[in-house]
Amino acid sequence: MVRRDRLRRMREWWVQVGLLAVPLLAAYLHIPPPQLSPALHAWKASGKFFTYKGMRIFYQDSAGVVGSPEIVVLLHGFPTSSYDWYKIWEGLTLRFHRVIALDFLGFGFSDKPRPHHYSIFEQASIVEALLRHLGLQNRRINLLSHDYGDIVAQELLYRYKQNRSGRLTIKSLCLSNGGIFPETHHPLLLQKILKDGGVLSPILTRLMNFFVFSRGLTPVFGPYTRPSESELWDMWAGIRNNDGNLVIDSLLQYINQRQKFQRRWVGALTSVTIPIHFIYGPLDPVNPYPEFLELYRKTLPRSTVSILDDHISHYPQLEDPMGFLNAYMGFINSF
Known about the structure:
The chain is α/β, with parallel strands linked by helices and about 325 residues long. It has 15 helices and eight strands.
């Protein structure tokens, strides 16, 4: 009798816990995205949208030096957005006639359809469509990329190498801290779990919050160059816009795509004759020194490399914007 009463009370207790947890969980899952900071709001307000196959893509297009024919297109990394380039934006406008950046599909202020098969091939086609939209499809383009954007740049380079009509004419390529070699790329634990698309993926993406995000992203910055809390909130606001946290697992399929198409994308880098440069933050835990750099130099011996200070990590354009900009200008002015 005593045992039955104890079991009954335990069942009642768990029922009460469940009744309390259900509305709390529902409220948690419907927390609205954070408001945009004044700086991020200004970034959005100064940009534009174009439509690609019924989906809205956000982009920035700034006029720079009058009389210069040079155009640079910036390709951002995962999981952030074109806002990653804001610290070097003005400096680029002092050298280039047009400075252009976009939020890839599924990122930043662009649409984030779900379910959707996100792919590097589609992102490359969106870049091409943007330049057609801007009337620049026949102009020679300098590509500057980071992380995920490096892989998109490799696909664009492959298409350029094939000399197919409608493809970009690439004048130069500068990569930065991207996992262009699967064998030297070390994704974060959460990325490994999400990219495999198991039953946990939709649960984890819904439960993801600012605390989880910030604790996961901060370690890929150097110890002295970590983003402030307000900067992390800007990044998180970009992800949460249009419920972007719910497509992170789909976007991470690029890791599997990179493995599958390694020969195509690494081959593109090794087979073209345009100037190629790599800007490297050597403290990067995702593409660690020296194994990444050794493989890069072995695979691409004719590419030039800029190694930033030894405390700079995975986001060099944010951690050391002046060093990054100087390295890029040195490359652009070398040919």
